[in-house]
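User: Here's a chain of 424 residues. Predict its fold as tokens.
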Amino acid sequence: MNRIVSRHGRMLGLALAGISFLSITAASAGDVTVWAWDPNFNGATMKEAASRYTAINPDANIIVDDSASQDDIRAKLQTQLLAGSTDGLPDIVLIQDDVAQKYLQSFPGAFEPLSDSIDMSVFAQYKVAAATLDGKSYSLPFDSGVTGLFYRSDMLEEAGFTPADLENITWDRLVEIGTQVKEKTGKPLLDLDLNDTGLIRMMMQSAGAWYFNEDGSLNIVDNAPLRKALETYAKFYQADLVKPVSGWAEYTGAFTSGEVAMVPVGVWITGTIKANADQSGLWGVAPIPRLDVEGSVNASNQGGSSWYVLASSDNKEEAIDFLKTVWGSDVDFYQKILTAQGAVGSLLAAREGEAYQATDDFFGGAPVWQNFSTWLSQIPSVDYGTFTAEVDSAVQAQLPTIIQGGDMDAALQAINDQAQQQMQ
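Assistant: Prediction complete.
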């Protein structure tokens, strides 16, 4: 599962100092080893996949190591690839989408191209694009970070609005709605952390834009969707619609305790919201607003990871067959992990399954999973490039000035200059 702030939405550093490396567990010939983080989400879904594969292939042995953090996995993987050593590396590893290109471009030949043996047209194409380089795709797409606008339906109603008023709107319209919500309820619309760029990134992706040009060079100063996203972000502050927070606990605490009326975020937040059973029936989910720029749609992404096969694997054929058999075609598997872990997968056919068709009383009886899967298919593809984290840091440095109404041209130039320096 991919979270924002201190968990998953922001690219974590690959600092090597002080890292406690993964222990290397010897595997028998024929074993397929998998590295993943988060035993309650990624690890649990992979173990379910493994049990399904071994049920039809009794001689197979899938070993899932989900004991390490994402930081540790990244550090271990990078350390060994830099050193040219593959001893102890797994057959399959989980990598977050926004850092995929950094690995693929920095370590050519380290990962097996999966599009040679798996049909990539059956997955959400924005996920496929994140792991595509020189015409080949290297990942089996896993969980989507498809976004939605989660809202307190009781607060919306108190302010005189209906769920239909949130359908297919722009962010500018949400500012207008939020102003009335605060006037009628006294509640800020959103809680935001200036150390996180998640909202800005989902605004950009809804317009099919990112920080870079096709050749990998920076696209900051003349990037119209980025400019509009920063201007819109500032509007929420300038209209006094934001509760400032710092860190994951404050962030989730604000909307789960009813301190704010809405939260635009990835689908993976559903479990956090539903943990408050006493709020059942008080929540709804609308499509994410779009930017008021040409080409923007009411669909975007935040977070998400995919599975990669190491080219050094002695069991590549079995690893690929495992991914193809379960992750690439088992629709029932995706119903199971949706129900058990809240994992919205990227296999498009999965949305026709029973679990995706079900309604949810917590969200007012809406078919929330079907809605998310529909939005998933509409997400524009973007190239996350190799330096997203560096640009994120440059954006964060300018946010305090931007929300105070600072000169946008100067802010964009400062972002460009800082990012350019960090990319050298």
